[in-house]
Amino acid sequence: MLVTALGLHCLSDGVACSAVMAVGITSALLLHKHREGVFLSRLMLDFAWLLEEILLRQRDVGFSGQLRALVQHSLILLGDCLTLYHLSPVGDVLVVPKASAEALRELGHHSAAILPVFASEAVGACAIRALLMEMLPFLGVTVGPSGIVLSQDELHRKTLELLRLLPPNLLGLQPCQPLDCRSRDIVDKLLLCGLLEAEEPESERWVCDLAPRPFCKGQPWAGVDFTDSDSGSEDEVPKRCFKLSEPQGSPGFLLFLCRLLSPVLRTYARAAAFLERPSWPQHEAAYVEALLQFLAEEDGFEQPNRSLALSSLQTFKEMGVLEEVRTPAGPLLHLAQPFRSSASQRKLEAFIQQFAQP
Description:
Blueprint lengths: L1 H16 L4 H11 L5 E2 H17 L10 H11 L4 E6 L4 E6 L3 H11 L7 H17 L13 E3 H14 L2 H4 L7 H14 L3 E4 L41 E4 L8 H21 L8 E2 H14 L8 H14 L2 E4 L6 E4 L6 H12 L5
Antiparallel strand pairs: 1-3, 2-3, 4-6, 5-6, 7-9, 8-9
Protein name: Glycerol-3-phosphate acyltransferase 2, mitochondrial
Keywords: Acyltransferase, Transferase
GO molecular function: acyltransferase activity
């Protein structure tokens, strides 16, 4: 256990020391912010913005030079993934990512280097998204982002659920920090970057609040009802709330952060959907290969790679979804009894999918 913890620390420190390359920044912008295409002039502005955000987080970059030259060099390296349209009347270039699986996989490979830089903010953004999806049926059509109030307890609860779902090494986070502390650090970073603003209470009743629940000391999915019963909460209303905000000079930052983590979450959600495919029990090696094939079958899937597949497998073991039995032929996987019904499998998939931005 100690050796594993030390190894995870070394991995986290190594990721933190890794320099971000220009092609990674460009790929992240094209894949997660401008999937439908963007003018070169706009791409340069966003490159400068994202570069500044990276440097503000004390991360190194592995390049220097003029902005236009950096972006153009990145586009040359990504040439097989892009289509460029030279528009003479406006004197600009339209950059459009190709929709092929190979192009999306290449862009996803390069943009993966950006996730550890914004891992905490991305987790917080996905937690906010999950809360907004819960609140959506109760919001009026005229309510804008600035009119939405989130309770601190609810935000911490959702953040903890996501932190327990994803292993820290996948996010480049330190493994020894308690989850409660990490969750509060994430909220602090959301406040610092301007995505949240503290809301002073005018009364003890919140119009856009959700039914609060205390911190989940155990497993977050333990609070998910995998039966057909409904339950409510009668705990006290939280006292502190936050208001959504958009940082100046960073339009669409919340959506960008959500999409940074989406490839990971989509893999986990598809792995949950895959549970109904195999005949159980199944050898672990065969399960992984079948899962990779299942992920590759989905149109537009960015990263059906072995690392994420193995990560989802480990998480499902820790959650108790899959039970491992050692045999001479290798680990044998059994689907746990509570997850053998299609209804429970769909609830597990929905639990993961709530955090994922399409």
